[in-house]
Amino acid sequence: MKDIRLLSRDFYSRDTVRVAKNLLGKRLVRVRGRTRMAGRIVEAEAYRGSDDPASHAYRGKTPRNTPMFGEPGHAYIYFTYGNHYCLNITTQRSGIAGAVLIRALQPLEGIRTMKRLRSLVPESELTNGPGKLTKALGIDKSLNEVDMTKWGPLFVEDTEYDGFEIARSSRIGIKEGLDRKWRFYVVGSKCVSRR
DNA sequence: CTTACGATCATCT
DNA sequence: GATGATCGTAAGC
């Protein structure tokens, strides 16, 4: 049986921008009841703390952003626009704010279930946006603060997958901090939210 | 192809 | 009371 490892606490405890880039190509896994779904991370954005005006943590700790200040490697999930959940993974050592927003996946496993949860949209549009992927994988606030370095409902495998080209750009949907190129995506992937 | 807007609510001012 | 780390639909070109 193949020895599958998960990304470690140390992986997430580093600088947020580096973690965002290094998460590309890794395999995000969602275990939901008896169903297992998985996708390759093809787009991610870094959000830091008091030095990042686009971040929820810019003005300090609040009830919502508390996970960003906590132990690295946990889920930070928030509800926005009255409709959507967004999934982040916390970074930096405890006490330092940071999180990586998972913006898009390439579906790999459990695609039938994803289609059911997303009303049968085409495969290339199942998970090509932060709100879309949480709906496709059945992720909501009940998973907020889950430890993603342990096997459970949500985790990331340390997959051996490379040979792809990475590009960077400004982050999407924000008004400040546009000078920082903290969005990373896989060049040529049909599953990223924008080219 | 592009732009515009409503949904709908937690959070912050 | 306004806004938003979004999305789907509708309408315009």
The separation of the N and C termini measures: 38 Å
**In this structure, how is the largest beta sheet organized?**
8 strands, antiparallel
List the uncertain runs.
none
Approximate shape: globular
Average of pLDDT: 96
What radius of gyration results from the CA coordinates? 15 Å
Number of discrete helical segments: 5
* Strands, total number: 8
SSE order, as H and E? HHEEHEEEHHEEE
Approximate helicity band: 10-25%
* Share of β-strand residues: 25-35%
Derived structural class = alpha+beta
Summed up:
The chain is of the alpha+beta class and 195 residues long.
Spell out the blueprint of helices and strands.
Layout: H1 9-12, H2 16-23, E1 27-32, E2 35-47, H3 66-69, E3 75-80, E4 84-90, E5 99-109, H4 111-117, H5 130-137, E6 154-157, E7 166-169, E8 183-186
Antiparallel strand pairs: 1-2, 1-6, 2-5, 2-8, 3-4, 4-5, 7-8
The chain binds a DNA duplex (13 and 13 nucleotides) through strand 3, strand 4 and helix 5.
